[in-house]
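Q: I'm building a small set of examples for a reading group on sequence design. Run inverse folding on the following structure and report the sequence directly after it, with nothing in between.
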């Protein structure tokens, strides 16, 4: 059911500016990574596939701009020469790449059907499938197979309240009922300068370089007396409340990063928010906005800042009616 058109008042803005308890986010992150660690350690103890692993929290939950509907986005950095270079080797084999896509599509359909069944049946089947012989994997074992097997191992560390399924970049964990937040796990390779995220649809790595994002965020937040962070959180809350999801964070951060610092001054949060929204005319000003990750490139050219422009235009129309 869609929310009704609202009128912006100070109480409304103040409510959306309230952060989630950071202790809660940290606690869920620790619980989530502990379960991931238990499953990964089980694989490590059975094979030499994984040398080491680490976790990194990214997006709004790492920037203090999370909202009630936020998802934990976690980078799972795996050190594994076999998994990393299996992607490079398979590029030379078109047919293997093609059939891997078909297998993934069939698997995703299977998981969707599986999630609709009774949870007790699902648990029994996946428990049976979790017996995997990691000690005897061959040289053709790749990231596609690893993701599938990882889920089979991981499922037993959650209760039947949680559903796990594979996506193109890793896996999704619908754990809000069990842990309080859902999570997206991105399987990445960290080369020290940037991150490589494996995409099982294209069967290649996507390079993710956050560049100056974190330092630019901190500088803007300090220059605006920490109003920048609040404005981003307000926008996230309102967008999620009326459009249904939390928007791309690099785009949102870039959008407000390009606003003059003086606009963040005001007697109330409402004053600041309205001045900034009036400044941002999505059809005119965003053409000249640069990315928070790299001020030399336009926001529309940053592959990390992709958005649904239809949804953004729709939301700005809602804001105009509310002003």
């Amino acid at each position: 059911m869609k929310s009704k058109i609202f009128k912006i008042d100070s109480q409304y803005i103040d409510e959306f500016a309230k952060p989630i308890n950071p202790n809660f986010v940290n606690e869920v992150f620790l619980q989530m990574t502990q379960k991931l660690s238990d499953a990964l350690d089980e694989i490590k103890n059975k094979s030499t596939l994984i040398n080491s692993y680490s976790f990194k929290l990214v997006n709004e939950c790492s920037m203090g701009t999370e909202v009630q509907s936020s998802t934990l986005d976690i980078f799972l950095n795996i050190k594994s020469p076999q998994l990393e270079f299996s992607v490079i080797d398979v590029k030379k084999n078109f047919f293997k790449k093609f059939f891997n896509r078909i297998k993934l599509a069939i698997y995703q359909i299977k998981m969707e059907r599986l999630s609709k069944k009774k949870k007790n049946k699902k648990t029994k089947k996946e428990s049976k499938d979790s017996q995997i012989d990691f000690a005897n994997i061959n040289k053709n074992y790749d990231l596609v197979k690893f993701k599938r097997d990882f889920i089979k191992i991981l499922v037993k560390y959650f209760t039947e309240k949680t559903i796990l399924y594979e996506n193109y970049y890793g896996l999704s964990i619908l754990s809000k009922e069990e842990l309080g937040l859902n999570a997206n796990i991105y399987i990445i390779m960290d080369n020290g300068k940037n991150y490589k995220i494996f995409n099982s649809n294209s069967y290649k790595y996507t390079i993710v370089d956050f560049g100056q994002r974190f330092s630019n965020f901190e500088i803007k937040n300090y220059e605006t007396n920490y109003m920048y962070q609040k404005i981003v959180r307000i926008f996230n809350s309102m967008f999620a409340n009326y459009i249904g999801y939390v928007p791309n964070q690099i785009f949102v951060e870039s959008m407000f990063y390009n606003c003059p610092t003086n606009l963040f001054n005001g007697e109330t949060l409402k004053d600041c928010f309205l001045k900034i929204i009036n400044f941002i005319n999505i059809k005119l000003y965003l053409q000249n906005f640069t990315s928070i990750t790299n001020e030399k490139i336009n926001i529309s050219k940053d592959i990390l800042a992709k958005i649904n422009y239809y949804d953004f235009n729709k939301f700005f129309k809602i804001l105009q009616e509310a002003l």
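Residues 22-208 form one domain.
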